[in-house]
Structures are given as structure tokens and as C-alpha cells.
UniProtKB/TrEMBL annotation:
Region: Disordered, residue numbers: 1-26, 93-126
Protein name: AAA family ATPase
Source organism: Lacisediminihabitans profunda
GO biological process, alphabetically ordered: negative regulation of cell division
PANTHER family in UniProt: ESX-1 SECRETION-ASSOCIATED PROTEIN ESPI, SEPTUM SITE-DETERMINING PROTEIN MIND HOMOLOG, CHLOROPLASTIC-RELATED
Example GO molecular function: ATP hydrolysis activity
Regions of compositional bias (Basic and acidic residues) in chain numbering: 1-13
Domain of life: Bacteria
Pfam families from the UniProt entry: CbiA
InterPro entries: CobQ/CobB/MinD/ParA_Nub-bd_dom, P-loop_NTPase, ParA/MinD_ATPase
Amino acid sequence: MTTKRNESDDHEASLGADNAASVDLIDSPSRDIASRLPESLTIEVSLPTTVHAAPEDELAVAIVEVPVNPGAIETAEPSTMSITVVPPKVVEKQPEPPVIPELPAGDDRGSTRRGRLRGEVSTSPEAASMLTPDRLIGRKRRLRGRPEGGWNAFVYAVTLHLVNLGDSPKVIARKAVEARIDKRFEGGARFIPVLTRKGGVGKTTITALLGMALAETREDRIIAIDANPDRGTLSERVNKQTRSTVRDVVTMAPTITSFNDFTTMVSRDETRLDILASDTDPLLSEAFDENDYNVVADLAARFYSIVLTDCGTGIVHSVMRATLQRADSVVIVSGGSVDEARLASETLTWLEANGYGDLVRNAIVALNTATQGTNLVKLEEIEAHFKSRVREIVRIPYDPQLAAGSVINYKDLKPLTKASALELAALVTDGLPARQGG
């Protein structure tokens, strides 16, 4: 083994006491090296410190580790430094799209009501919308009422109520009109005057017919007041049950505190229409003025939902002013002749000229075709004229009961007459406000 020595290793030439007896192996090469080695041998080697050579790219960005004394820096003149600050670019964070969980797969029958009508159990949780009435209560056919109208009623009877075809188309149309008449009202009574400037056109008959159609269909109370100062005949259209008149109501108004008190002064028709008669004495009739009408109207408004007023031909009478001030709608009656239609149109003109234009636009014209001369004129032209001025027009056909000028039995009227009366009542009701003041 050859050991190389240099100047840096001179201090390691002397070994410790344990190595003093070491024998130079070179001098005795023939001897057994292994037998002459000591039990322990320590060699110390001092190597030079490794110097790290930094790459040039590191030196270019290296910071000198020499502290700088700020006071040692001398400047000839103050210098300025401009620093440009670039704000960081704000990147708007896009909202993450909502994650919509997938619907549970399987059991397609659970997604409809039909799949649950037989008590089938879903393999996945059901939504609250699955608790439908037809599922919980049971699928039962809605029972129809007894059908009305010819063949359908006959089939229902001969099959012992097993086959119910429902109502006939005519009955369905009639019930639709009755539903319009049965309109619900909130608030006080609705006032409907029936008027025209021409006498003898059936104004009183139309008032009674309209009141009967309303009373027959509606569940509330209907009254018709005869406010004709020329001795009206409205009470003669029903079976009279009392001799009391509007004058008696005015006289006894302070003592009338209930509906029962008021009903003792009216006559009631089979349709439940109440009629309050006018005075039979012409002298007393002329004394019935605006103030008297207001007393009667105030009492009627306490007990009735709809108040019809049969007005006289005296359109400038004080009662007419009180009637129109309370009116929610008006019915203008016209006959089928030239002069009757012209006078009815002049009534509309008078109303417009006196500030009742809204009533005219909402008015209904009842064209009574039972008057003389109706078959000689073109009713379509009369209707076209009035349709340009009012909301609607209704023909009232000839009926022997109406032409007789006596008591009207509503149930015995011809079907066409009843249908016309119902249509008139429906049109009038359509024009009445559902809420008082609306």
C-alpha cells in the first residue's frame, strides 16, 4: 500500500501511541501483512473545502451580501425616481353552472298518477305532487244529474237510470244563461229603471217579465216598484195579495223595521218576485214625488238585492230624476213600429243630453214585437240603429199571455218567450257592477 504525502499533510505524519509500533510494510514485503496489522487503525485525511462555482445566470441576479451604510452615500444633487404601478388585472370569476342532479332511474310507472292508482309502491322517493285527489279519494265518475230535454231524458228513463247522456245542447245553453243571471253581488242593492217616452209599448209587461226571469233564477230577493205617476198597472201582472201601495210605504216608513214588515205591503208572484203597486187614485199618484220615491227606494235597498222601477212616460217628472240618480243600468222599451222606435231613440238622446251618457252606453233595448205594425217594418234595421247606441238589444216575441195585458203565469209562457226573458235578464245582469261603486 503506497501513501502519498504532501505539504498539507505534514501535521498528520506523527501517529498516536497506539500507532508507534507500526512496522513499515515496504521494508518487509515478504512478511504476512495481515498478521502484522494492529487490532485498530485510524487514518485522518483532511481534504480541501469544496468551493461552489455559481453559474453565470445565478451571478447575474445575485444580491451582494455587503451591507450598505445609507450615510456613506454621497449625492451631488437630489435625484428623482418615477415608479409606475401597474394594477393587477382583475379577472372576473365566472359563476359555476348549477349542478342538476339526475332523476333516479327506473320505475317509470311512478312518474304518473296512473301508476299509483292501484296501490303500486315506487322504488324511488315520490314527490308531493303525487298525492293527488284522484289517487287518494279514488277514481269515481262524477254523477250527472237527471238529464233534461227530449231524447236524453227518454234514454235515461227506459234504461232505469243506467245510461245518462247528460243534458241536451239546448238545456246546456239555457243553464249557461242562468249562470250569468246568478251573478254574485257585493254591497247594496242594484237599481234598474225600465223607461220610454212612448206609452202602450209594453213597458210594464217587460218590467214584470224581467223581474220574473231574475226571481226565477236567482236565490236573492227581487222587487219591482211601480213608480208611474199616471196610475201604473204593474200590480195587475200578478195576483194581488194586498191593497198597500207606495203611498202606504211612505206613510208607514218609520214603523217598517224588518223584512216581514215590508212584505205585508207587496204582492209576491210564483217566481218569488215582489211587486209594490202605485196609487190607484190619479190625484194621489201625482203627489208621489222625488222625495217619496227616495223613501221607498231606501227601504227596498235594505231588503232586496235588485230593484226594478217601472217608470212613467213623464220623463221630466221629478221621480225620473231620483230614479236615474240611483240607476246602475237602464232598460229602454221600444215597439216594432216607426214612431215607437223613434221615441225610444229620442229617450236615449234625452239621457245623453242630461248627463247620463254612461247609462246609455250600458243600456239594453227590449224590442217588443207584439205591438201593432211590427210585421210592416224591418226589425233588422231597428236593431241595427239601437246597436250603434246601446250595449245590446233583445227581441221579445209575441205571446198570448203578454198580449192579454193580464196576470202573467211565467211557467205557462212559450219557450221562446222564456228564452228571450232569460237573455234579457242575463244581459242586464252582465252590465251590473259586481261590487257596489265598482
